[in-house]
Specification:
The complex is a heterodimer.
Chain A: E1 11-14, E2 18-26, E3 29-35, H1 45-58, H2 62-75, H3 77-80
Antiparallel strand pairs in A: 1-2, 2-3
Chain B: E1 9-12, E2 25-29, E3 37-42, E4 50-54, H1 56-59, H2 69-75, E5 84-91, E6 97-108, E7 113-116, E8 128-129
Antiparallel strand pairs in B: 1-2, 2-3, 3-4, 4-5, 5-6, 6-7, 6-8
Classes of the chains: A alpha+beta, B mainly beta.
């Protein structure tokens, strides 16, 4: 970790012009302003860490992932998934509008 | 719908996924033998995690999740682009599975770009139970 000491109104720049500035120092904490290109996501660390932990729990090698799918197909989701998502023969895309169906990238 | 296996295609996640930032490319695998699930198979140089995903509306029919302007930029999404949503499924130690409805993966087939939505609150859980047997 790179460590800096900044006073009020001083800033740090990272990478492609991302700026981090101390806006206010108070009893409740330090107010920090971030200026970054529009496509760069900026989040509180706790948010990122929660999602990192969830992803780490979910990640597997590809064989284990395939096994998980078959276990779920056999035991749990058949009750939760509406019939339209399982139909095969009607020739239409019967999945939900947000992208169900066999070729999600078509 | 057809019954053939759909060829794999590579989606670019410019910042990887939280926890797997070095994995910038994923293959989205879909086939009737997996339905209603998809596999998001990592194809990174140093790390290649695979994830099971499911369309969140199959779990929660009223599912709605907003995308920020930064999300849309990273997806290179234009107004009419139809996005693919995948909520990541996690096995739990007790044998059940949960699905991350709060932070779904979103893929734009038109640009072959993907992101994970980094929501910090909202009505959905990181570990929404999949229907228990």
């Amino acid at each position: 970790m790179l460590v800096f000491t900044r006073k009020l109104d001083e800033a740090i720049v990272i990478g492609e012009g991302i700026e981090i500035k101390v806006l206010r120092i108070g009893r409740d904490g330090v107010r920090i302003g971030v200026t970054a290109p529009a496509h760069v996501p900026v989040h509180r660390l706790e948010v990122y860490d929660q999602i990192r932990a969830a992803n780490t729990t979910a990640a597997a090698d590809v064989g284990t992932a395939h096994e998980l799918v078959q276990r779920l197909r056999a035991t749990t989701v058949q009750d939760a998934v509406p019939d339209t998502a399982r139909s095969r023969s009607d020739g239409r895309n019967a999945g939900p509008p947000s992208g169900g169906g066999n070729d999600p990238l078509s | 719908m057809t019954t053939q296996t759909i060829p794999e295609r590579i989606v670019t996640f410019s910042q990887g996924l939280p926890g797997f930032e070095d994995c910038r490319h994923f293959i989205l695998v879909a086939s009737p033998s997996l339905d209603p699930f998809r596999l998001l198979q990592g194809a990174g140089a140093t790390t290649s995690p695979s994830f099971v995903g499911i369309d969140p509306t199959l779990v929660e029919p009223e599912y709605r999740q907003a995308l920020t302007p930064a999300d849309l930029l990273r997806l290179e999404a234009r107004e009419a682009d139809k996005l693919v949503w995948l909520a990541i499924v996690a096995p739990q130690p007790d044998g059940h599975a949960t699905v991350n409805l709060r932070a779904p993966v979103v893929i734009n087939p038109a640009s072959m770009r993907g992101i994970q939505v980094l929501a910090h609150d909202g009505p959905y859980r990181l570990d929404h139970p999949l229907n228990a047997a």
